[in-house]
Amino acid sequence: MLGRLFKKAIPSRPLDTARVPDGVRVYAIGDIHGRHDLLTALLAKIEADDTARGAAETQIVFLGDLVDRGPDSAAVVETAMALKAAGRNVRFLAGNHEEVFIKACRERDSKTLRFFLKIGGDATLQSYPITRAEYIDLDIEQLAERLETLVPEAHLAFLEGFEDMIIVGDYAFVHAGVLPGVPLDQQKTSDLRWIRDEFVGQRGDLEKVIIYGHTIYEDVDERGSRIGIDTGAYDSGKLTAIGLEGDDRWYLQT
Known about the structure:
With about 250 residues, the protein is of the alpha/beta class. Helix content is about 45%, strand content about 20%.
């Protein structure tokens, strides 16, 4: 309770003044983690909300961690690819889980693969065409070799094309956060994809209002120059998107 009261007491001046350029509407989607069912439901809500608000230059930003933990990572990747192929204005940020997934598939060494499986990659691999019996039967070295034929090259190439930061107006979208005190154009990829405590613990103003995922909250976390929208979809069933237009912001959830 005291933590929540303290959160409310922190000045939110940057949030009060942040805006996106006129005529632009942005939706950013938090960490999906293999919950294709929630993604399709949220995309339908975004479509309805966008239509109801009238004409605008609309873009959708995925904050990363499309894969792992939930049951349908392969389907999530397929849907994301289909949105881009259909000519929708969609952009994708690379999360730490995409980073490890790609490394496990490209390098196929047992150490990386073990780490990938430990952080939820077992669910990802089983969303591809492998039976549960075959998955259990393979040892780690055999599973590493199986990756070459299990995960489509098109999926890996798509994930490898993800960005690390997207800036729209007074907002910067990243997966994990930024290192406080370092200009946005000098941030390290490792921090953008993996940082946690140094970022979520900071209390000063940042160069932009940072919209991020990676750190799970029970609900949207707004404070100072930060908005966290990872609501733990894979476990909670609540996938969150933020909408931005002018100086307005709103939220859509499953």
